[in-house]
Design brief:
It contains three helices and seven strands. Strand 5 (78-95) and strand 6 form a beta hairpin. The chain is α+β, with helices and mostly antiparallel strands. Strands 1, 2, 3, 4, 5, 6 and 7 form a seven-stranded mixed beta sheet that branches. The longest helix has 15 residues, at 145-159. The protein starts with 9 loop residues before the first strand and ends with a helix. It is 20% helix and 44% strand. The radius of gyration is 15 Å and the shape is globular.
Length: 163
C-alpha cells in the first residue's frame, strides 16, 4: 500500500517554500550468458558513459509500483514483472531557480521479454540509448549515488535468492 501523498505529481511543503516531486523507477535484471545484468539508459543530452536507471514522475492517482513499471517499460522497451521494492532515494535540486525536494522509489523487476532500446518514438526525446550492464559493475558504472545504492540492493537481493 502506498502512502497517501505519493499519488501526487508534485505538492508544496506547507511550512516551507520547496516544491515536492515523486517519481518511480526500477532495476530490471535478467541472466545473460550465466551472469546477472541490469538495464540502464543514457538520458538524452547526457554525455556518453552517463548511465542511469529508468524512472519518471508518478501520475496523479497512479500506484507507485505501476508508475515504476510503466516508466521502465517506456524507457527501455522491455516487458517486466515487479519483484520487490528496493528503496527510496531523496535529494534536492534546483530547476528554473526553484528548489525541488524529490523522492524516487525504486523497485526490482524481472525481465519478461522485449528488446532493450526498442522504445516508442515519443520516448526518444528522453532516452539516447539503452544497454545491459553487468549487475556487479552497475554500482560503479551508474552516474548517480542513489541509483548505485539501488543496484547494490538489487545485487544483494539476488544473492539472497529473491528471484
Amino acid at each position: 500500500m502506498q502512502p497517501l501523498g505519493w499519488t501526487f505529481l508534485s505538492a508544496r511543503c506547507k511550512d516551507c517554500d520547496v516544491k515536492r516531486e515523486f517519481s518511480a523507477g526500477g532495476v530490471v535484471v535478467r541472466r545473460l550468458r550465466g551472469r546477472w545484468v541490469a538495464a540502464a539508459i543514457r538520458p538524452r543530452g547526457k554525455p556518453a558513459g552517463t548511465w542511469a536507471l529508468p524512472k519518471g514522475l508518478i501520475a496523479t492517482g497512479e500506484r507507485v509500483v505501476d508508475a515504476a513499471q510503466r516508466e521502465v517499460e517506456e524507457e527501455t522497451g522491455l516487458r517486466v514483472e515487479p519483484v520487490e521494492k528496493l528503496g527510496d532515494v531523496r535529494y534536492v535540486y534546483t530547476w528554473a531557480g526553484e528548489r525541488v525536494f524529490k523522492v524516487v522509489t525504486f523497485h526490482l523487476f524481472r525481465y519478461r521479454g522485449g528488446r532493450l532500446g526498442d522504445i516508442m518514438p515519443e520516448q526518444r526525446h528522453e532516452v539516447a540509448e539503452a544497454r545491459w550492464l553487468p549487475l556487479e559493475d552497475a554500482p560503479r558504472l551508474l552516474a548517480y549515488g542513489g541509483e548505485r545504492a539501488m543496484a547494490e540492493k538489487a545485487l544483494a537481493s539476488l544473492e539472497n535468492d529473491t528471484l
